[in-house]
Amino acid sequence: MTDLLTFTITAETHPQEWERMWTTIQALCGDRLCVDAKTGASWQYLCTQQIADGYWYHCFRHAHYPKTQRREQLFIPFKPSALQLESVHLEV
């Protein structure tokens, strides 16, 4: 199994990046949360993860995305050098 670097960004720790993440979802989907009328499901931020050497992404999931009526994942590209990262940890 490959080791992955993973960390979490919050509105308190990195407000500018937090806003950029949600603004990107709004630009892609037309709405920041995309709440499903039937289930109440919306986009959820999971983590920020190095998926491949040098490539980082903010990872989101939606349990029942209204446009497709199914579970969806969204990966927003990220450059960690743009932030001061105090809470990076290794997950195996």
Structure characteristics:
alpha+beta; 92 residues; 5 strands; 16% helix; disordered C terminus; single chain; 5-stranded antiparallel sheet
TL;DR?
This protein is of the alpha+beta class and 92 residues long. It has one helix at 15-29; strands spanning 4-7, 44-52, 55-65, 70-78, 89-91.
Describe the model.
This protein is α+β, with helices and mostly antiparallel strands and 92 residues long. It has one domain (4-91). 16% of the residues lie in helices and 39% in strands. It has one helix and five strands. The protein has one helix spanning 15-29; strands at residues 4-7, 44-52, 55-65, 70-78, 89-91. Strands 4-3-2-1-5 form a five-stranded antiparallel sheet, covered by helices on one side. Strand 2 (44-52) and strand 3 form a beta hairpin. Mean pLDDT is 84; it is low at 86-92.
SSE layout and pairings?
Elements: E1 4-7, H1 15-29, E2 44-52, E3 55-65, E4 70-78, E5 89-91
Antiparallel strand pairs: 1-2, 1-5, 2-3, 3-4
The N- to C-terminal Cα distance equals: 7 Å
Major sheet attributes: 5 strands, antiparallel
- What is the percent of helical residues? 10-25%
Strand content: 35-45%
Q: What pattern of helices and strands is seen along the backbone? A: EHEEEE
Kindly provide the radius of gyration, computed on alpha-carbon positions and rounded to a whole number of angstroms: 14 Å
What is the chains' assembly state? single chain
